[in-house]
Design brief:
binds cytidine-5'-triphosphate
Length: 411
């Protein structure tokens, strides 16, 4: 998808600028023609020579280049996509306000190509209302925002604002080049593992990190869908996604069933507890009182409930974490729960499943294996899942009955 595409890689002056070198290399490896554009601040962190050596053209840093009197219009008009990595608060503010005071901001204003911004900054700046408001405006204009991660920041601080992983940024560039094939659809996604309280300090939980569900929400939003994310995970999300935070299976059930009728696509990526304690102690259970006996009861199966009330034209996707015969179990679960697609992963495989940044899945439909996605970034897995959703919703000659309705538009 990136082969032969002209990518303007904007780099601004943040400590994460060194990671743009890796993004540049990966884009070139994927066959893209990469033109680096560095702000003056960026050159204080990484030299032009580094980018010039790795990219397809020498790095550019100035509007006043002797060889080319109007570099920004040439770059803006010829780009297939512009990605800014890292995007500082200054760049985001200038771009939102339409200020073009250097080559990169001028190029951003001079392009009609899709734009991807990968913000990186200190947590206080990332959470500042001005930055959040600017990003919401940009998201509303169709700019693809790659939400930063939590982690180590400059100066030894830890928090939200760390540049997203290079593979996630490259995946977002690929997505930006994808047509907005989910525009007009309302997609409801669940993510994370539920926590079932035993007492005010203890809970029964599972190893789900929410990364795959959040990647699905980000990908659906990037493809033009209106997205609602019901999540237990405290992870950043693309601006514009409607986020509902929940903790228990019962809260997730309530949040999902209240919204599912309005959704064209529901993706149950959450690891919902199958059992919960019958009673949750109102005060902390004391060790001195002896080993407690925790009696469990089943939770409601949200996916099965959605399958039972599925309306025509709605596409239902389930997930299954398996350890044995993945495909056989997935096929059985698909039928039992009334889903259209089931994404099965072997959680015992190295690098796949809970807590990892990568995943390897098999997407199963009633017809059998739809796609076999070998170990890939969770954003790439999200793309494959949504490709399967779009394909399942697209009427094909010969599919006589049970065709989903075409996409509906929502206000
Ligand atoms: N799920 C759900 N509600 C539950 C449990 C699971 O909606 N209470 C959904 C998950 O979000 C996921 C799928 O069902 O989409 C995964 O089901 P799983 O737990 O693997 O299936 P089980 O029915 O528990 O089957 P088994 O225990 O036999 O693996």
């Amino acid at each position: 998808m990136l082969a032969g595409k002209k990518v303007v890689l904007g780099v601004t002056g943040g400590i994460a600028a060194y990671k743009a070198v890796e993004v540049c290399r990966r884009l070139v490896d994927a066959g893209a023609h990469v033109v680096p554009v560095l702000t003056e601040g960026a050159t204080r962190f990484v030299g032009e020579v580094t980018f010039s050596a790795l990219a397809s053209e020498p790095a550019q840093t100035s509007l006043w280049h002797e060889r080319d009197p109007i570099p920004h219009t040439r770059l803006g008009q010829s780009a297939d996509v512009v990605v800014v990595c890292p995007a500082t608060a200054r760049l985001i503010g200038a771009y939102t306000a339409g200020i073009s005071d250097d080559l990169l901001t001028a190029t951003l204003l001079a392009t009609r190509a899709p734009v991807v911004l990968a913000p990186a900054m200190h947590t206080e700046m990332w959470e500042h209302p001005a930055v959040a408001a600017n990003l919401a405006v940009l998201a509303g204009r169709g700019v693809h925002i790659v939400a930063p991660d939590q982690g180590r920041l400059a100066g030894g601080d830890v928090g939200a604002g760390r540049l997203a992983d290079p593979s996630t940024i490259v995946a977002a560039v690929q997505t930006a080049l994808t047509p907005p094939d989910m525009a007009g659809l309302h997609v409801l996604v669940t993510a994370g593992g539920t926590r079932e309280p035993i007492d005010p300090v203890r809970f029964l939980g599972n190893r789900s990190s929410g990364k795959q569900g959040h990647a699905l929400a980000d990908e659906a939003a990037a493809r033009g869908a209106k997205v609602t994310l019901v999540t237990t995970a405290d992870r950043p999300v693309t601006a514009g996604v409607d986020v509902i935070r929940v903790e228990t299976a019962a809260e997730m059930e309530q949040a999902v069933l209240a919204r599912s009728d309005a959704a064209d696509v529901v993706v149950m990526a959450a690891a919902v507890a199958d059992f919960r304690p019958v009673d949750s102690a109102p005060t902390k259970i004391k060790k001195a009182d002896g080993v407690p006996e925790v009696v469990l009861e089943p939770t409601a199966d949200v996916l099965a409930a959605l399958g039972a009330r599925k309306r025509p034209g709605q596409t239902l996707v389930g997930f299954a974490a398996e350890t044995g015969d993945v495909v056989a179990s997935a096929g059985e679960k698909l039928a039992r729960k009334g889903a259209d697609l089931l994404v099965a992963n072997d959680v015992s495989a190295p690098g796949a499943g809970f807590e990892h940044d990568t995943n390897a899945v098999v997407i199963v439909s009633a017809a059998g294996i739809d796609q076999d996605v070998t170990l890939a970034d969770k954003r790439a897995v999200a793309r494959a899942v949504l490709d399967a959703v779009v394909a399942a919703r697209t009427p094909t000659p010969g599919r006589a009955s049970g065709l989903p309705d075409p996409p509906r538009s929502h206000p």
